[in-house]
Structures are given as structure tokens and as C-alpha cells.
Amino acid sequence: MKSRFVLSLLLVMAVLLTACQPAAAPATQAPATQASATQAPATQPTTEPAPATGGTLKIAILAPLSGGQPTFGISTRDGALLAIEEWNAKGGVLGMKIEAVVEDSQCEADPAVNAANKVVDQDKVHYIVGEVCSKASIPISEIATEKGILQISPTSTNVQVTKKVDGSTKPTVFRACFIDPFQGTVGAKFAVDNLKAKTAFVLFDQGNDYVRGLAEAFEESFTKLGGQVVGKETYTSQDTDFSAILAKVAEAKPDMIYLPDYYPIVNLVGAQAKEKGITVPMVGGDGWDSAELDVKAAENGYYTNHYSEQDTRPEVQDWVKNYGAKYSGAVPDALATLAYDATNLMLTAINSAGVDDPLAVAKALEGIKFDAVSGNITYDADHNPIKSAVIIQVKDGKKSWVATVSP
Length: 407
Ligand code: PHE
Description:
Shape: globular
Radius of gyration: 21 Å
Bound molecules: phenylalanine
């Protein structure tokens, strides 16, 4: 694992050396090489869905359609619904038509718990795709564990989503994305090797599991790699004025700022930092991924993500076409893509289990090799896929894919 990671990082460096040539590559240019050596062709279950003979199988989609990060929920819902539509067009699953039950879980614990209880107790669903945000997925996973419901979070990256506090794995909880210890390491390696950062200032929301966990993962890796965290400040999700903590950043003169939060906070902090004349790059994580990321505020920044629509793999390009055709030319972000992947993964596992039984489907998932748009999925013992990350650069008002990093 370690040597493969080093090798992948070498590949990233090679890619970046190419991407950072003086007459900087046009923003839309894809990297010449992808670190895809580890992507062996996956075996897809060959069973075709049986023709519908009656009945319905319900899948709940729990996503933040309102609240602070609405683009996360809308993309997630649209990606998941497209997968369900395609399965229904092929005859459904296990002879049943698939019915989506969509609930707004707001990226927050309480609404997420209410939505999960509602779909399980009232709608009698056995399968949940969601939530997006770790802070909402963790409480949902407790309900799923207690009630034996199969949950796949498309995008929640915090370790505790699939793992209990005692360290054991939640038997019916999975995710379709990598985890934050990997994402934080990729960000730190990138900062040290490519941005040549020796010092970093970390800004994070103590009350958000994802933000706090990713900040910790970054700090640990950055320090191990010889970097120094010269300052750390916290804020809350309600804050709008960051001048006090940005004054501390200005004073510390770090080589970079690590800001692993969701796009609305990045927009505020980025704009206020620029007003203060702070020009060092900001680096963040998948939470930056939104059509509403303010590219002016995030200019000169980088973030780790699950997928880029600029990836030249034919699976990605076909998906971009397919999604655009369905949703009036919209470009699928990582949320839409992972929701599509998670839903397909779930339906494929139900189909190969051959029975509507969350425990049997969980067993099928444990042994699956699934060729997702966002990369191949096989599970480790903690129900985490071993998958690559991409690095996106915000430059001249555009978001460009600069590298793919394999574990
Ligand atoms: N990874 C984030 C979390 O766990 C959610 C997220 C994923 C947001 C992808 C944007 C894009 O909370």
C-alpha cells in the first residue's frame, strides 16, 4: 500500500510537472497520464434484471435539498434518480419496479434522523442511498444498523460512517467514496511535493465531523512529511465574518491555508482573505465541489475530489453526455456521479443477492467488483472502497483536473 502510494504520488508529480509547464496548459486540458495502473477490469455480475412481474422495491434517497448546501442534495437526487430510471427501463430489479422515496435530510443530524425514521417506519424501505454529509450520515447509519437497513452513502468520507466507536464495522452500512484519512494524505502530499509548502495554517469548523476529521488527517500527514502547521483556528457554520482569524493568518504568513469545508464557507473565507491581501493558495477537499463555488474567491486554490468531468476515460465521457441529455445540458458534479454510482451499486448487489434482504445484499456488496463511473469499487474490511482521488485546480476562474492519485 505504502509503496503503491509513493508510486502514485510520483505519477502525480509527473503529471503536475507537465501541467505546470511555463506556458501553462489551457485550463481545460486533461492530464496526459492517469495513475490508472491499478485499475484492473472489473467483473460485473452478468445476471440481467428479470422482467418485472409485479410489486415494487423502494429505495430511499436521503439528501440535503434545502439547508446550507442545496447543490449537494439536488445533484445527489438527480444522479440517483437517473440510475433508477435506467434500471426500470430494463425491467426493474428482482422482477419489481423500483420506486424512489426522496427525503430532504438537510446535511444535519436531526432532520436526517427524522427522514431515516420516516422512510423506514412509514414507507417500509429496506434500502437507503444517502446522506451526502458525514454529520448526517453517521446518525442515519446508527438507525440502519439498529433496524437492519442497507445504507450506502455516496459521498460521506468520515471514518465513523461505516465504523462503530468500538472499532467494529457496521454490518449493513457502506459508502461509494474514499475516506478522509486518504483524502487528507493526498492533500498534504500535494501541498508538500507540488506547492512546496513548508508551513500551513488550518481553518476548520469544530462542530462538523467531516471538516474536523479532514483537518486532522491533513495535519497528521503534513507534519509527517516535514511540514509545520503554524496556526489552527476554528469557527462555526453560522459565522460570516472571518476577519479575526484571517488577521492571525496574515500575521503567521503561512505558505498555504488548509480549509476543508463546504463551498459556502469557502466562498466567504476566500473572498475575505483576498480582501485582506492574503494571496497564498487555499487547499481543501471534496466539500468545495459545487457549481456554486465562487471561483474568484477560490482562485489559486486546489481541492481533492472524487471525480472530474474532464477525465478522459470513456466511462466518464459517456456519463457526462447521458446526464447532460437528461438534465438540459447540466454537467454532473461528483455528488451526482457518486449518487448514480451508489444507486447502481446497490441495485447490482440486490440483483446478485437475488432476494430483497438487506443482510444478503450486504454480503453481496462485501465481495463485489463494481465498475463505477468514479472508478472501480471493491471493499475493505471496513466497507470502504479502495479508490483514487483527483486534484482540481481553480485558476483563471476555471476548475481544471490536474491529477488522479491512486491509493
Ligand atoms: N465528503 C463530505 C462529507 O463527508 C461530503 C461531500 C462529498 C461534499 C463530495 C461535497 C462533495 O461530509
